[in-house]
């Protein structure tokens, strides 16, 4: 940062210039904010390598151990929960991206009766509180025999993720020139062919964002997962983690190790998608 | 033109559009439409655990609950609990959204200039977003632990008495807000940073030529330039915070007592935690929450329209 002092006192300071003091203040503020942001996850990671009984010691790792990890993987149902979560989240993401893409494309390209109500429906669905739906949904799933079944949660998660994702996909499709569709039609493709072969490949960043959003929503969902899945072997990760620390047990060591294993895939997916994320979030919602 | 012909013609023109949206409409219709109608219906009855249709062993018991009209709503609205919870939910939402937004705005402005270590700061500051919320909440519970948590140990090192982070009503309220702000700042930061970067630099240069001060530039270029992004993120964030189930549920379970219980967690408690499970009252709470949120969205949208936003 080169510092050029203002030529005359009284001239307003330019944007690119700041005094040494202001510079230090800026770095100090950002550094404090960064420490606050990073500390909890970092502390979680540190704690997971401590022996169980030292979980709350303030020192850094003195006796490095992987015991928490081996305990979680070998002696608890963790792997089953992990498998449940991967299955549910995987299916939800695949289906969710596909449904969001077709809906987003239809809303972006065609003017059809029922389009405006549909847009409103997609927006309003996001406001539905878990609380108003959870009991009837519980009864509905019980009636269909879908309680404690992965399929039940998949369908539920689709209704949370798809409206928002369809809204985002519409924003992405709006940025793809309509001329491409027209060229496809001239070459004899029907609307589905145009969508599938021409437009969808161009919307890949959008698909990545939608996939990410669906993945994270389903991976981290707590309320439905705790209400609909019971019995150790049916839990997902969000439900399973609650069994380590509750009113009866306080196994913070296992909790931290399990938490780290859960957080890593999510953080990796996030790292890939984050650049596109906000463009998608805001494009979808402001252009409606 | 007869109806049949018109329908056939509409089908001919629009069938592919309708086919593409059909799965979503169907899924939303079944999974949200049905429970919503059913929820509204339940809220008009006296259904609870003891009188709904259920199976005990091989015996099938038919439903015996009755239609009671608006009794639940009358009971809920005249009971102090609802207004207490509503007051806290509004406080919680306003506090969380405003603190999150202002923090995000300040940090975005700091990051939106040439600065050594910019990428590092940016990555560090969005880290809380990358980790599933329930993991972060559990981590905070560990940090907040009254006897052994690191926060209190650090305070003890400075000779300060242990703070009952989650066990005292007032502290618990501050603690849940702090965690929610911690979780929400990255989203605001990234959204506002995107907004800042889309403001053309020439505007600032022109303002500098005209001798505008830093505050004037912020007030007359940055603020209007961010209006579209801000209005979107504030609305989204308000809706999300109002319904923020996981933070409260996993951090305090609404406790101590019901000090931190917001409307959604209380409604959940009525039908899944309390015994006997009171489905009808819970449904009435849910319907009231929905009405409140819709009102907020409509009013907000009106306000935006008045300012000339097209949304």
Q: Can you give a write-up of this model?
A:
Chain B: Belongs to the binding-protein-dependent transport system permease family. Chain B: InterPro entries: MetI-like, MetI-like_sf, UgpAE/MalFG_permease. The complex is a heterodimer of chains A (288) and B (311). With 288 residues, chain A is mostly helical. Helices cover 71% and strands 0% of the residues of chain A. Chain A has twelve helices and no strands. The two termini of chain A are 41 Å apart. Chain B is an all-alpha fold. Chain B folds into two domains: 59 residues, no CATH class; 230 residues, MetI-like (MetI-like fold), CATH 1.10.3720.10. Chain B contains 13 helices and two strands; from the N terminus they run αββαααααααααααα. Chain B has a two-stranded antiparallel ribbon. In chain B, α3 crosses α7 and α10 packs antiparallel against α13. Classes of the chains: A mainly alpha (288), B mainly alpha (311). The interface between A and B is large, with 96 and 101 residues.
Write the layout of secondary structure elements.
The complex is a heterodimer of chains A (288) and B (311).
Chain A (H helix, E strand, L loop, with lengths): L19 H29 L18 H9 L2 H32 L5 H11 L4 H15 L5 H25 L3 H9 L4 H12 L1 H16 L3 H6 L8 H5 L10 H35 L2
Chain B lengths: L2 H40 L11 E3 L2 E3 L9 H8 L1 H32 L6 H13 L2 H12 L5 H8 L11 H29 L3 H9 L4 H12 L1 H16 L2 H7 L11 H11 L5 H28 L5
Antiparallel strand pairs in B: 1-2
Helix pairs in contact in B: 3-7, 3-10, 4-7, 5-11, 7-10, 10-13, 12-13
Family (chain B): Belongs to the binding-protein-dependent transport system permease family.
Organism (chain B): Streptomyces sioyaensis
Keywords (chain B): Cell membrane, Membrane, Transmembrane, Transmembrane helix, Transport
